[in-house]
Amino acid sequence: MSDQDQEKSGGGGLIRLTGETGETPPGSSAEMSPRLLFNPPIDIYEIETGLVLYADLPGVTAEDLDLQVQDKKLTLFGRVSTECGKDLVPIHQEYRTGDFLRSFILSDDVDHERIQARLTNGVLRIELPRAEQSKPRRIEVAPG
Amino acid sequence: MPVFRWRETWSPLPDLEREVDRLLEGVRLHMQGIRSSRSFPQLNLLEDAESFVVTAELPGHEAKDIEVTIVSGYLSIRGTRRPPAEAEAESYRRRERFHGPWQRKVQLPDRILEDQLRADYVAGILRVTLPKAPSGQPRQITVNEGS
Q1: Is B3-83+97-131 in CATH node 3.90.1720.10?
Q2: pLDDT in tens, chain A (144 residues)
């Protein structure tokens, strides 16, 4: 797709989106019945203190969301319950139910310790604060 | 605004989309943005013996901001998804999520009990349950002999 370049520059240098294929969700094993895996749509915008990331994860509740940072890689994995009710038979289907997985590479400018996340009505909001040291710091010059 | 009919024999587009989805799924290729480029929200229609159920992927709303109405055999849902107030247009680095007003209409396949409609909104999924109207008793009509 043509947004490969945009992919690399997304997030103004603080964050980089990783490859979209070939990833396996945490805790998945080959014996499990294959589940669909989707790339959730995201928004990233800048605020004064850093970046804010939003992801659409319909059907995911806080207990079923796994968010982790490891070696600068932020991975979100949301598990969606596929049972939709007793004897319901689909008549018309526009969307399919599956899990959500997406990962991002954080730059050193993101303060990993202060990352905060909140999941409300199927939307995940992650705040990625810029590390203190990347703010301009004035260095006192002592007279020699 | 998207209007579709159930059980219509001529529906090449959904068939094609389903086929493409199946192919992509077959090679485990999950294309970027493929879910966000379609109409918002995506709907499913299901049924069991007693009711029809319409589900919609509607993340990021408040239940009170989703309007569900039934008018002459159509279920209509509408609302608006607003971007966060703190986000300025020029501060976006990436924009894939849908924002703005939306509306979907669904023609119901059968008669339903309109006053017993129920809508639930959980974890960004809207679920509207529409109990089927009991099919009318066959009524015998006496044929009068002409005099």
Answers
A1: no
A2: 344 433 444 445 677 776 544 456 555 544 455 788 999 999 999 999 999 999 999 999 999 999 999 988 999 999 998 766 668 999 999 999 999 999 999 988 899 899 999 999 999 999 999 987 656 778 889 888
ipTM at complex level:
0.74
Pick the CATH number of A8-19+36-82+96-133 from 2.60.40.10, 1.10.3720.10, 1.10.10.410, 2.60.40.790: 2.60.40.790
Give the residue extent of every domain in chain A: 8-19+36-82+96-133
Give how far A71 is from chain B: nearest CA, Å: 23
Instruction: Name the nearest CA neighbour of B123 among A63, A103, A40.
Output: A63
Residue B97: which of A42, A61, A92 has the nearest Cβ?
A42
Q: Whose structure tokens read 């993340």?
A: B59
CA distance B35 to chain A (A): 7
Interface test with A, best of B45, B53, B96 (most A CBs within 10 A): B96
Residue A104: burial class (beta carbons within 10 Å; 0-12, 13-18, 19+): buried
Q: What is the dihedral of CA A1, A110, A102, B80, to 10 degrees?
A: -80
Identify residue B105 by its one-letter amino acid code.
Answer: K
